[in-house]
Amino acid sequence: MLYHRAGPGQERPPGSQRRGHPESQIFIFDKPSQTVPAGMQSWTILLSHGEQDWVRFDDLETVKTTEAARLFSSGTTGLPKAARLSHHNFIAQHHVTEPQTSLPFKPSILVAIPLFHASATPRTHFSPLRSGTQTYIMRRFDAAAFLANIERHRITVLVGVPSMMRVLLDQRPSPHALRSVRAASSGAAPLHRDVRARVKALLGPAVPYTQAWGMTETTCRATGFACPDEDADDADDAACSVGYAVPGLDLKLTDEAGREVAACDDDDARGELWVRGPIVFMGYVDSPAANAAWDADGFFPTGDVAYCSGRNGQWYIVDRKKELIKVRGFQVAPPELEGVLLTHPLVADVAVVGVKATPDGSELPRAYVVRRPGAEGDALTVQDVKKYVAERLSSYKRLEGGVVFVDELPKNPTMKVMKNVLRERAAKEMGAKL
């Protein structure tokens, strides 16, 4: 069966004919006021087909090998892949991320990201049923409505991606807007220190605002802080620490040659992060090449470059391996440049990608910048942006690949920037100049 939310004037889900789906197997997620396209049927018709009891099982092998859901990877660096997640994955995710002791407050949460996203599915479909946490769900994210719902329902646990937090800050919320919040966390993209500081100013010094890291393939969170602990160390990077590995998860780093790198020592050595444990997914659907990625010891490569601090044992995510910019032999992480640019008072949003600069494959950083609305923002120039970075970072991190002003950045439904779209645009723009 295929479920689809129809857009204006859309008669049939894209690709459904090519995949051979008969109309009897296509159901539309319609709003109460929405008309279902001719020849199709609303999902509500399924409610008229009676009931069937749950399939019940309690042996560990069945729990580990039975799919509970198929969630798609974000597709920010390529085509999304369908990840197979077991009941065991979700149960493990619940036990390693939900507080196992009583909190000094009653947890309640507001979910405003799509329910098909890896960070939403455990919070809406699994954990609330086991923990009883009050969970409120919005159809879509709207900053004003989000703030109003926090106050109306007295939400105590604030969760959201960094881009959501920036939009909330642009609303200039009152000092009391988040007074009910007792703990806050961020994920899905780097949480830059400037954004964190501005949100914490609204939350108050006693409220922890931490960052977690995870992915679809780890059933959501893989590292973080035990609620309601505080993120005590921002280190020297633009983005904050993502905390510690969740219980039962093994992490390791490898260099470009595939050799294991010592983690959590004084050198803060960087490498690709690999994961192994009960929250790691079963594999991808119809992707034999991707499913061959596990190593002989059962570790899965995440594609993220990370390091573990020898000072505190906390993990830091540098960037996606595919997104590191190689400038004359140096590696430049876009989140560092983005973090600096977001401190500029006239920059509302930004994304940095690498563009090919020389025949030998060397790249240069190129920034796509959204200016703040108004006359002051309109006055921001390319040279202003380049100078701002040049005054704060090493010479090889300068925006020699250019600065392009855009009205908005391409983002997927979970508000992640689609860097692959920007790289394709940059290639066309650079090609036109040659």
Automatic annotation (TrEMBL):
Q: Could you tell me which residue ranges the AMP-dependent synthetase/ligase domain spans?
A: 66-284
Instruction: Give any Pfam family that matches.
Output: AMP-binding
Which protein is depicted? AMP-binding enzyme
Q: Which GO terms describe its biological process?
A: secondary metabolic process
**Organism's domain of life?**
Eukaryota
| Any one GO molecular-function label of the UniProt entry | CoA-ligase activity
Family note? Belongs to the ATP-dependent AMP-binding enzyme family.
